[in-house]
Amino acid sequence: MTSTLIQSTLDLPLLARGKVRDVYEVPSGPNKPRGDNLLIVATDRVSAFDVVLPTGIPDKGLVLTQLSAFWFELTGGIVPNHLIQVVDSPRVPGIDLELPRETIGRSMLVRKAQRIDVECIVRGYITGSGWKDYQRSSEVSGVKLPPNLKESQELFEPIFTPTTKAEEGHDLPITYEQVAELAGEQGANAARLRSLAVYRYGRDYARERGIIIADTKFEFGWRDNEVILIDECLTPDSSRFWPADEYKSGGPQPSFDKQYVRDYLEDIAWNKTPPAPDLPPEVVERTAEKYREAFQRLTGRELIRG
Questions:
Q1: How many CB atoms lie within 10 A of CB 145?
Q2: pLDDT per position as a tens digit, 2-20
């Protein structure tokens, strides 16, 4: 089985360590620790039910970084984003040190932006937490939906259903008006329109390649008085990918993401609080295969490896 990277250790100032990504400052000079760029390293960590598991998924970080970069490049003419380049060698222009080979293919050099603290979720199908909200109130994040929808049914038009961005615990649904309170009217409008534009492009592109993108999550930030797309883009971690040839509304769908992980944890009746249990090798490998398959189907490329 391919080795995994659970945590990176670079000779750069560590800015943040998220559930999956380690974010480093890129100094602009020998005595200037705060530069204009960041290095984002996608590890092979996997989380479920808001808890990071002790077992990594081989190649997951490679898929997340390279698939995000693929979408950033495809959609850059529609919505500006923070990508400068994927790390493809130990020497990267703008970084005054030799990077370890483990960073190759799983790291990207990006421009800094002031993050808008909102999860910008777009739903093209009614599923997941959106389905639960719809069953309770016939609406999601303040968006009223038609009656008698089935689980996993495609919506007439994609909807913008933002949530809070919680540092710990669960994100909570909020309305567009609440986004405007957090980000200002200009920021909220740009985030909504740009989320819908990238989702529609990705949905149509993926459908031609046999994948339904049921919903997805974007993050945005301010840079030079403009709202730009940051973090990741249309990956199996931030989206629900379904095989189009197996789609049938009326219930849950098979997927290309970490569903094997969630199903296993449900089967063993884990209480969803730390510490999380180790994953068995078969669950790890089946999950890794789904990530790799999604990448290959969408990009037609081979993964860059260190």
A1: 18
A2: 689 999 999 999 999 999 9
Burial (CB count <10 Å: 0-12, 13-18, 19+), residue 282: exposed
Q: Work out the number of other CB atoms within 10 angstroms of the CB of residue 148.
A: 6
Cα angle 248, 249, 254 (rounded to 5 degrees) comes to 55
Supply the pLDDT for residue 50: 86
Residue pointed to by tokens 């250790």: 9
Residues 6+ apart with CB under 8 A from 228: 79, 80, 81, 82, 111, 113, 220, 221, 222
CA 202, 204, 207, 208 torsion-angle sign: negative
What is each CA distance from 16 to 39, 111, 114, 168, 251, in whole angstroms? 11, 15, 14, 14, 38
What are the beta bridge partners of residue 54? none
Token pair for 132 = 């639960």
Q: Is 182 left (phi over 0), alpha (psi -120 to 50) or beta?
A: alpha
